[in-house]
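Researcher: Go.
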Amino acid sequence: MDLQEKGTEFLYRTVLGRLILKGLVCPKISRLAGRFLDSPLSVKLIPPFIRQNEIDMSEYEPCIYKSYNEFFTRKIRKEQRPIEKAKNCLISPCDGSALVLPLGENSVFQIKKSRYNIRRLLHSKKLAEHYKGGSAVILRLSVTDYHRYCYVDDGIITDYRTIPGILHTVQPIANEYYPVYHENTREYCILHSENFGDIVVMEVGALFVGRIVNDKDRGIVRRGEEKGRFEFGGSTIVLLLEQSAVQWQPQLLENSAKGKETPVKMGEVIAVR
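Model: Structure:
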């Protein structure tokens, strides 16, 4: 267990840790951390992070970074993340660990000990009704993943919404104690996609990730076009799909049935029409 995992265990599994956590999840704390990570002083954090996580910087576009956040949101070379172009294939919007969950008639899904109601997640009864019987894929990014994300299909964006909240970690342990996706700051839009119906695309902030940076909130978009980025920390993207919109990749379904996440990369196929 590394230092980060030990810290997370302490915060979520001890009484003292949970007392400290009440202050850490406050958005003001994330904003303060963000100011430091935007400053030139934070550049000193870059070399040890690269060494500790064995990041191959040759995969990324060359750049002289002026802050840690500039490094954290670094752009990868296009050839490192090829985008599947076949129209019948749904692609992953990001790098991460994927979990597919069915949405029953009550529009509820469960992760660890936390139950999630789609109505509460979206703050919309009407929209929750629309996705009854559909499915969700939760894509959890770790701090070492590529933190930019793209559109999963050609289409038109509408109904953009921001829901303020607090900022728990998105590590699986947090779901044993808190419904983090109900409580965390999040943004979502509806993508009227050309090939997979109406897709809810939601970005969820996490501990020390106060900023979800999306490039636009309306208009025509293209598969593989960059949608935005998360600043420092782990984060999550949630996709909600209508009933019978896709067939998920067999390995992804098999792992998800066991509660096991599947590593994916931005642009690769996760389902077919």
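Model: The mean pLDDT is 83.
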